[in-house]
Specification:
Length: 64
């Protein structure tokens, strides 16, 4: 089971042992949905950090 340290409010990701069998389409979709939530959250974090860095560069005189 994988739990996000950065986003503890997201559901843990569990991929059960399927004994060499394919994962059913329903389980595949659910896993992809959970992974997509992680990606969206990381995009939000990275965009926020990028905007903060841009604000610091555009106004460097205010750090005094």
């Amino acid at each position: 089971m994988w739990e996000s340290d950065q986003f503890p409010d997201l559901f843990p990701l569990a991929i059960p042992d399927h004994g060499g069998k394919d994962i059913s389409p329903g389980v595949q979709r659910q896993l992809l949905n959970l992974l997509e939530e992680d990606v969206l959250r990381w995009e939000e974090v990275l965009e926020s950090e990028e905007q903060s860095e841009e604000a610091e560069v555009s106004d460097p005189g205010e750090e005094e």
